[in-house]
């Protein structure tokens, strides 16, 4: 969304939304997309709302940024959005300040703001990590319901595999800033191709034998500024061979729209069908 | 809210009492005011008569007792030198000082805030570095020297602005002010700038650090994710948040502007309270010094109260805690 703080920038690659290329779009063009076509929900609901502005102010400005409506119409839409995410007494709550909401309620407000302009895509960056489990499940159910209603696509960034299993259609596993494996959620979780994915799954408490220490991936995530020359995961990988340390693996395409970036993918049954550039 | 107000009031009275005791006895330590008031040709009898007239022949403890007694009757004593009630002397000069302080404060806000925000928004630009270097200069150059330089450049060399005095004044609602005429503005420009210089620098630093902090907050990122224009983000989201610390500091600084404009008033012959205080100290004119301190304490307390009220306007979180209390 072009929100990365400098010195971060897009070095290469391509981002397409409904066929429209977003990389290289100027500020004005990007601004028109933000909040209108793509909305975002952040990790910490205690931080995403401006503490000194009322909820209605923060909602109306999101509408105003993209279309000309009367204040009254905008207010009505804001109230509607709050009702949609399940905030009781929405009309009164519009006049409230963020500190008068609990964390879960604030995240609902943030979701309401993200939904205001009926975007075609919502990116949610660990939106439930800061919430407790009961609230998390409420929010999850709400998001699923709302996205299904409006036909909005949802990218959910998380490290909670239970959430992934319950929520996603397709899953993409990233390591050190690169995609290492993608596929339909059942395929990836049941038969991981990449050793990192398998490591993640094996370190789940439910996968271990009770009383035994959990399996873990040895070592630490590398600093993104000093990645090893070969596969970024190679120093921590049990299956790493000499080639892993020398060259970064290309993405290998597997059946059923799967892709893995590994020299030695696990599943010997799923034979690669070709190489891609990505 | 009311109990809070009374608590504040009680604190203020305590502070005022402490200050009175300190100043009253402090001035007596410096010297006996009577030696400043007599002329060389007076004989012993005349000196004694003068001392008796001013109540200076009594022991210091008794003098203090009479002073406190007078205080409860609203009498702060007469100036030894001028023979007028001290409080009237000070209030008469206060208008000029307030005018100067307000002008300086406005300058600090109008010049300092935008410069500081600019430097905070674009920390790497050359212009920002220049602004920050300038603010260091503003901090470190001594006021009296800058004042002299301002007079040198703008009054003597270029001759644009007058170097001293207040210029013509108009009376509005019983207050004399020079802010209504162009000539008055010309007179106030240099002293106000001189007084404001330090505050401008302070303002730049505050606004810059506040802006930089706010820029890294998630709510700014979220505002951007909503597709808001950068100008809206700066005006609505950032400005309102950085105003909270700025109002606190500015309020306190306003008090110090009023109280300690002594140097500037002396350099530019500005007929304000600061100049009066300096003269009073030189002549050990105790009633004026005590009255001055009282006025300043009351002013500080009052300003703090206003800041607290402004706070609740700016920061909704403060309102809630007040309602609970």
How far from one another are the termini of chain A?
20 Å
Extended strand count of chain B: 2
Q: Calculate the terminal CA-CA distance of chain B, rounded to whole Å.
A: 8 Å
CATH topology group of the largest domain in chain B: MetI-like fold
Proportion of residues in β-strands of chain B: under 5%
What would the average pLDDT of chain B be, to the nearest integer? 79
Q: Care to count the β-strands of chain A? A: 10
Structural class of chain A: alpha+beta
The low-pLDDT segments of chain A are none
Briefly, what is this?
Chain A has eleven helices and ten strands. Chain A has helices at 27-33, 45-48, 55-64, 71-84, 90-93, 103-115, 133-150, 161-167, 185-190, 195-202, 242-246, and strands at residues 16-17, 20-21, 38-41, 121-125, 153-157, 170-175, 178-184, 251-254, 258-260, 274-276. In chain A, the strands form three sheets. A five-stranded antiparallel β-sheet of chain A has the order 6-7-9-8-10.
General description of the model:
The complex is a heterodimer of chains A (278) and B (325). By secondary structure, chain A is α+β, with helices and mostly antiparallel strands. Chain A has 2 domains: 147 residues, P-loop containing nucleotide triphosphate hydrolases (Rossmann fold, 3-Layer(aba) Sandwich), CATH 3.40.50; 80 residues, no CATH class. In chain A, 35% of the residues lie in helices and 15% in strands. Chain A is built from 11 helices and 10 strands. In chain A, the strands form 3 sheets. Chain A has a 5-stranded antiparallel sheet. A 3-stranded parallel sheet of chain A has the order 3-4-5, covered by helices on one side. In chain A, strand 6 and strand 7 form a beta hairpin. The radius of gyration of chain A is 21 Å and the shape is globular. Chain B is mainly alpha-helical and 325 residues long. Chain B folds into 2 domains: 44 residues, no CATH class; 212 residues, MetI-like fold (Orthogonal Bundle). Chain B has 14 helices and 2 strands. A two-stranded antiparallel sheet of chain B has the order 1-2. In chain B, strand 1 and strand 2 form a beta hairpin. In chain B, helix 6 packs across helix 8 and helix 12 runs antiparallel to helix 13. At the A-B interface, helix 1 and helix 3 of A face helix 9, helix 10 and helix 14 of B.
């Amino acid at each position: 969304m072009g929100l990365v703080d400098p010195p971060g920038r897009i070095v290469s690659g391509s981002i397409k939304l409904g066929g429209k290329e977003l990389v290289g779009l100027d500020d004005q063009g990007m601004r028109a997309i933000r909040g209108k076509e793509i909305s975002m929900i952040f990790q910490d609901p205690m931080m995403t709302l401006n503490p000194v502005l009322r909820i209605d102010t923060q909602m109306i400005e999101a509408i105003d940024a993209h279309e000309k409506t009367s204040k009254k119409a905008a207010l009505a839409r804001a109230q509607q959005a709050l009702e949609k995410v399940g905030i009781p007494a929405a009309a009164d709550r519009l006049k409230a300040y963020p500190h008068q909401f609990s964390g879960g309620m604030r995240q609902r407000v943030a979701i309401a703001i993200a939904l205001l302009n009926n975007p075609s895509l919502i990116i949610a960056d660990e939106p439930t990590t800061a919430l407790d489990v009961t609230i998390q499940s409420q929010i999850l159910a709400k998001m699923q319901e709302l996205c299904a209603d409006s036909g909005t696509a949802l990218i959910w960034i998380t490290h909670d595999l239970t959430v992934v299993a319950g929520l996603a259609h397709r899953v993409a596993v990233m390591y050190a800033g690169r995609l290492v494996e993608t596929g339909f959620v059942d395929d990836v979780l049941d038969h991981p191709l990449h050793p990192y994915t398998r490591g993640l799954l094996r370190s789940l408490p439910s996968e271990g034998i009770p009383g035994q220490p959990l399996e873990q991936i040895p070592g630490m995530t590398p600093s993104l500024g000093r990645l090893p020359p070969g596969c970024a995961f190679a120093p921590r990988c049990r299956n790493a061979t000499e080639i892993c340390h020398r060259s970064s693996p290309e993405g290998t395409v597997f059946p059923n729209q799967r892709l893995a970036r590994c020299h030695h993918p696990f599943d010997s049954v799923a034979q690669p069908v070709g190489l891609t550039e990505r | 809210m009311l109990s809070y107000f009374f608590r504040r009031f009680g604190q203020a009275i305590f502070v005022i009492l402490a200050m009175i005791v300190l100043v009253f006895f402090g001035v007596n330590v410096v010297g006996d005011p009577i030696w400043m008031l007599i002329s060389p040709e007076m004989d012993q009898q005349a000196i004694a008569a003068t001392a008796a007239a001013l109540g200076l022949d009594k022991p210091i403890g008794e003098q203090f007792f009479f002073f406190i007694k007078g205080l409860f009757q609203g009498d702060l004593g007469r100036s030894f030198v001028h023979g007028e009630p001290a409080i009237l002397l000070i209030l008469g000069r206060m208008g000029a000082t307030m005018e100067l302080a307000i002008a300086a404060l406005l300058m600090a806000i109008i010049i300092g805030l935008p410069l500081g925000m600019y430097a905070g928004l674009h920390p790497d630009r050359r212009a920002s570095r220049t602004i920050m270097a300038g603010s260091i200069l503003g901090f470190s150059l001594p006021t009296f020297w800058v004042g002299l330089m301002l007079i040198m450049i703008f009054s003597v060399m270029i001759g644009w602005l007058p170097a001293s005095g207040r210029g013509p004044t108009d009376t509005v609602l019983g207050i004399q002010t020079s802010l209504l005429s162009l000539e008055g503005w010309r007179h106030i420009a240099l002293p106000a700038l001189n007084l404001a210089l330090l505050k401008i620098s302070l303002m730049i630093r505050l606004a810059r650090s506040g802006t930089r902090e706010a820029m890294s907050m998630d709510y700014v990122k979220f505002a951007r994710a909503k597709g808001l224009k950068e100008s809206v983000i700066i005006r609505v989201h950032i400005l309102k948040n950085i105003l909270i610390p700025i109002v606190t500091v500015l309020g306190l600084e306003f008090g110090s502007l009023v109280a300690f404009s002594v140097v500037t008033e002396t350099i530019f012959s500005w007929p304000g309270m600061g100049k009066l205080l300096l003269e009073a100290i030189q002549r050990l004119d105790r009633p004026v010094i005590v009255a001055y301190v009282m006025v300043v304490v009351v002013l500080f307390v009052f300003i703090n109260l206003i800041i607290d009220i402004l706070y609740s306007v700016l920061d909704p979180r403060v309102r809630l805690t007040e309602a609970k209390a």
